[in-house]
Model the fold of this input.
Amino acid sequence: MPTTEMLFLSFVGGIFGTAVGALWAFCLCGLITIVGCALVLAGGSDFLLLQVGLGPIFGPQAGGFLAGVVACSYAGGLRGTHPGGKGAGKDIISPLMGSSWDVLVVGGLASMACVLLIALLPKIPVVRETDVLAFGIIIISFISRFLFQREGFFGKSPTRKQFGLLGTNNYAISWIPWMAPFPRLIVLGFGVGGLSGGIAKFSSAALAPLVASGAIGAAAAGTVPVIFCWAISAVMLTALQLGQGNALKVPVTHCMAVVGAVGFLSSGSLVVAAFCGILGALSQELCARLFYNHGNDHLDPPAAGIALAVFVLNILFKPEWLNLSALF
Done:
């Protein structure tokens, strides 16, 4: 369980992440994580990686993303003080410094709640087979949707009745419309999955002698190969934050990156990693159509996609389950 001090840090980190806005905070989280990965690869401290970039201080489950998402739902729904006005619960780009003090507090409390939840999830059989960090983000996001938007899992927008639960009105209501068409999505997923698998392969090889010599811990060595390409993808979203017109139309690839890396580490095959990238791409698109498109707040498709796809891969590949890793 996190210490009282770590919970306090997650609370104040959540206030900061809410003030700057969820997407800005996530880009910053990605940058911190890249630097943390570089330090570990150089044989240095894992504090920045495991306690800040991915941990309770400023991880995506805390001030590095979730705090701003929950506060955005509160400010755009129940409170009505979002800078974009009431109903702007999906606007995770705008900083929330201009809302109200209680919005910042809600972000801090959401950060603390998710940190506590993520400490408990690995103790639950079957649930621990997913990516508990991503799953915790989704659980807290659903709770905030119920509380602040008065909506269920699938939202309550009239578009759900008009176009169907999985319909997109020719991508007009899609989460990332320029990425949603399946041919683009599949090719992109294949590429990102293969790239992330390659980074996982060579970073694992570089880290093995550092673990053997005692220079770094096993937890950091196991984290870097999975998360390095995810962090690159997070930093890339600065274009989405700052861009105008066609310049902002970057792909959102961190789900594909994580799933591709897990695919390689489960199988040892870069080809499997590339196809797992497709699994990640399709998983996040499915979750976008189910949980995001018809809602009035941000229910993060990449986090939901990571939770779903990693669960599937662990059931398929882990020795205690179907053990497909024995085929590779």
